[in-house]
Amino acid sequence: MRASLRKLGNLYIRLLGSPIRDEETGELLGRALIVVWRGRVHVVGFTGGMPLKPVFCSQDKVVYWRQSLGFIRATPPDYPRLRPE
Amino acid sequence: MTTLPPIVATVLLTHEPPAAVTRMVTHWLDHDPEQVVIVAYGGPADQSSMLEVEHAVHVDDPELRTRDHPRERQSYLGVFAAAAPLLEKLGVSHVHLAEYDEIPLVRGLNARLLEVLSRENADVAGHRLNQVESTGHPHLTYHRHDPAFMDYWDTISIRDDREVVLSMLGCGSFWKAEAFLAVAKLRPPLRIYLELMLPTAAHHLGFRVRPFPDQDRFMAPEVPKHPEEFEDFRRQGALRIHPVKGYWSQPNVHP
């Protein structure tokens, strides 16, 4: 029963979920339902698999009444070695 | 000054019956005879004593034997601690951490892995490696609920930014022995899921952790692979694949 519901939910999101695009590159990362509930943004059933980083989107003019939240893909680390040789 | 040639150990984590373990070790050695294969056996102790392999350690750690791995925060620190003395004794320079359902597809695999490590100037290379502390990664959000999780990195870190958290698959990671042995000594005060623990610990101890380029799709745990697909994966450039379930329990399927 639970598995059937999950399959149905996944199908619904794949067909009708919001496309999630990387705000920096424009790459389509997957689809998800974006639900706002009690002041929180819930990302439900994201199909992309990779971790998402929320970012406020840049705007080409000053807009006081609305700010948009988007997502970017997580990046691999690139830190130097700090061990003594 | 002469540079010694690298000695690579594949630490092969398994709980399969002894006959299957013999088959998998033979297969790994056949693909790279220069390497040392150390079986890290997580199965029953009586089966462990029946293993017919050159190098094996028994891992008697309840934190390894989980069913729902992320929710129970499965740990490989017991595997690291069990393998470490033997790695030191054998003078190993690099460690490939492999699970029983990872299958090597190319001969001379370790030379390719060494090349990646050298090219990236890295101490550790892993699959699905991401920096996740500002993301909605479910393992991170679950662990971060406990303040002890972030406090722990603060206690061991030699880096300026102690908030960094990394995530990678445990399976298929490739380590300089120095990094592997340093992580093996850690005893965190809370259980941390291996996919967060291993890369984040290595990072905060000062090691450089980098991804394996272009190989993640061949290691994706949610996509089961089958022997009839091996040739196709090989053509696509896969060095090894994961997960292939039940492969070693069938005596006649592997070459």
Please tell me about this protein's structure.
The complex is a heterodimer of chains A (85) and B (255). Helices cover 18% and strands 34% of the residues of chain A. Chain A has one helix at residues 2-16; strands spanning 18-21, 28-37, 40-44, 52-56, 69-73. The model of chain A has no long low-confidence stretch (mean pLDDT 91). Chain A is extended, with a radius of gyration of 17 Å. Helices cover 35% and strands 16% of the residues of chain B. Chain B is globular and about 50 Å long. The longest helix of chain B has 14 residues, at 18-31. In chain B, strands 3-2-1-4-9-6-10 form a 7-stranded mixed beta sheet, with helices on both faces. Chain B has a two-stranded antiparallel sheet with strand order 5-11. In chain B, strands 7-8 form a two-stranded antiparallel ribbon. Chain B is built from 10 helices and 11 strands. Chain A binds chain B through residues 43, 49-54, 74-83, and chain B through 121, 123, 129-132, 134-137, 140, 158-159, 164, 166-167, 178, 199, 203, 205-211, 222.
Low-confidence segments of chain B: none
Which structural class should the secondary elements of chain A be placed in?
alpha+beta
Tell me which oligomeric state these chains represent: heterodimer
Helix and strand run of chain A: HEEEEE
Distance between the termini of chain A: 57 Å
**What is the string of helix and strand elements of chain B?**
EHEHEHEEHEEHHEEHHEHHE
Radius of gyration of chain B: 18 Å
Task: Show unreliable segments of chain A.
Answer: none
Helix fraction of chain B? 25-40%
The strand line-up of the biggest sheet of chain B is 3-2-1-4-9-6-10
